[in-house]
Queue: 2 jobs
Job 1
Amino acid sequence: MDCVRESALLGGYIDNELDALHVEEIEAHLRDCVFCRTQYEQVLRLQSLVKERAPRYAAPAHLRSKILASVRTAQPGSRARAWIPAGWFQFGGALAAAVLLSSAITYYSILPSNTDRIVDEVVDTHVRALITNHLTDIASSDQHTVKPWFNGKLDFSPPVTDLEAQGFPLVGGRIDYVNGRPIAALLYRHRQHWVSVFIWPDQHVVISAPRSFSKRGYDITQWSADELFFSVVSDIAPKEQDEFVALLRGDKSLQ
Amino acid sequence: MGELVEDRTASAGFEAVVLSHLDAAYSLARWLTRDDHAAEDMVQEAVVRALRFFGGFRGGDGKAWFLTIVRNVCFNWLKLRSTETLHDPFDEDIHSPDTDGPAGQTEGAATSVDSSATAEQIGAALENLPAVYREAFVLKELEGLSYKEIALITKVPMGTVMSRLARARKQLRKRLDQKSKES
């Protein structure tokens, strides 16, 4: 094998882009040819140097919000309508009434003793995701894509519902770390706002009626269902957050 | 990434495609234009175009789809604003007899990537690559795309992607060479 031809193929080998036949050929050649072996090592070294140290550019926040705004005004047909579809008020009203009723009873038997800490932690987690722009590990508005993605990554299966038609499109999911354990984080969008839903199993906490807190300008709503503990964090209007929570909880029982 | 954006309705998809790949789009535009403000303009222009063409997007690889538009906008800009060569440069290594093979081993084998290179040095070396090498390298090493995706975005055969990457790596190694840097 001649080394000139090798030089481009070597890259293909490093990038895992060659078929088995070529891989074998290259590996045999690398065993024999000191020159190509040095090339190989140097490319690997370059690769790790670039990965580790090359400047990274992320879209500046002002660009992101400018684009969001322009996308929304440019899509009045789909966007503006999507967030208040016909029948929303009827549906939402019924759910809101149900929530009012259940919170009037305010039935919760056991609260976690570390409620405050957990509230702080979920707010931190929400803010950190926005600041570092690490919003999702899997970006998809398809609940059937997001839900299976968690398989094998967590020891429980979080319920995932897209609420696009109700004005809360699912943006994606990621794994985060809260309360000393890996948890499922779902991200929804409501107009210009992000809504985080954090889910982890906790069979000792029973909060059947959602409880809301305010911290640092964020609203936090928490409840439990099916031995899972839910926390919603966002800066949307409290009334909208209540509707979102009702949708999340309501949809589950409808399925 | 392809499977992540499949089976979307148009209205659900656009924002998700654009939003989740905004950083990749900005990064590509920034490396191609080598200018913060130009990169922002390119991304905005690309979003406008993407919005117009989204009806034609039939699911599949949303990242490649959006980056293709960003790339085209950037190349149009480069065509107008810069003196940069936008095609594969004439490469002496390819067109002169075998300088890279065993006969010319001294040069290639002597290059040793300087692991103390700073971010600025690496950035400068990258920015100095010809545009077509630069985009292939950025898409591969910083965005982690496959040859197939890069071929799709840059509209060249996969073999060309492979050889451009090889050239890019070779030039970078030369620029980040310990000895040549010291001299």
Job 2
Amino acid sequence: MLVSATVERMAISRERQRLGYLIGGCLAVLEAIVLLSPDLDAAHAKGPMNTGHETVQCEQCHQRAPGTTRQQIQANVNHLLGTREQPADFGFKAVSNADCLACHDRPDDRHPVFRFLEPRFADARKNIGAHQCVGCHAEHNGVRVSNNGEFCQQCHASMEEDGDALHRPLVQAQDWESCLRCHDFHGNYVKEAPNDINNAATARQVDAYLSGGTSPYGTERHFKARRTRP
Amino acid sequence: MSKPTFILSALALTCLAIYLFVTAPPPIEDPDQVGSGPRIPVAEALTILNAENARVRSIYTRDIVGAGLKVGLKFDEDWKDDAVQAGPLPALFLRETSLRLERRPVPLGLFLGSKYPIASANQFAGDQATAFTKMESDGKPAYFYSKDTKRHTAMFADRAAVQACVTCHNEHPDSPKSDWALHDIMGATTWTLPSDSVSHSQMLELIDALRGSVAEAYGSYLNKAAQFPHPPAIGESWPAQGYALPTQEVFMARVKRDCDEGTLEALLAQRQTSPSVSPETAEARP
């Protein structure tokens, strides 16, 4: 009786073990599919892709770092030992402006990101990271602009005194929201800025656009981003 | 630590050291230490580049803008607007060069600013304002390290080279200063570079990037000029010879002619004064 019960328990235990292996194996296969299938990139991304990037594949921005794993370890150990000036990226390169500009670079950007590397823009760099595309366009947030829209005042506050008659009253009233009602930040839309704030887009339209909605500046653009990096 | 653990740990560390250093493949290139041989200090490197840029500006200001105005060519701050039939003013030609330069793979920055700019967004602040105040009195270049961007910075006086600069800035309604005189220090060009020194091969890359950017900037003006309702003849002739503009090749040949000798002399002088750095010691540089 006792032997029979023991044998039965062992059989149940083996059955559970097999079931455990089966479930573990299935989960491993499922995980491999999710991680390796380009169609399922969104399933393991940090968050939803920003507006216009919905079909961008991970490797378009997350590029492999140069060298083998061994070379990368070697370089970083050398850096820690003080025999190498710069550390090396490990696995993947840090996403930088160059990755954004691979698709979005154009010759006539009104606010090219690298301009903010000039020393005098220290406050803009500190406050909003103006020298990095991700300062305003942090990826995986499902929006077009990820900061709170407080960028114009970083550099144009002096217009309170030296601005022209059209702009001075707006700056004096600290109406920074009004800037984007007339001007698109990168100057990429063909539509001319109106000469009267009453003919401008509404603040709500601008907010909707920054959140990923339709453009208040029309649809015609000077430059269209590349669909994949060259 | 027990004896066996110590032996095992020592063996593991030895194997790791052999794996990482003795049998390891060639190291990944250190971006700050590309190239071997004598190195040029960043201040000298930026001085050489500024001298090239100053010669380019002189050619553009005198022989394109100055001579062009006399034969009917127009130059305007809004030259990029479709409705404006004009080319870039000298300061905007530098801005165009700077835009092209920043899009190249070399991490070289070029900017133009002033204490009294026509566009308030070009007003110096912080370290640049401090350096410019000193420059106004002694006219000497300023060098400092920008901590937040980790870039070495050099500023060079930008003087009113021709009367047209003085007249335009004095008469412009947005100019905060209207008593400029010829040869006044109106502003400064600012150059930035991350490394504290460059190899000669890197220096040549920087010069090549600057000249390439100048060529592109001039090319963008030619593209605009070709769309004028009454376009100038684009060929071998310069504005001094009539309503004409030199081609990009002719313009750059002049740039090359005016820059080559000075740049070569500066490079050779650096070769004689720079400490020689072997590839081994370059790798070991802290």
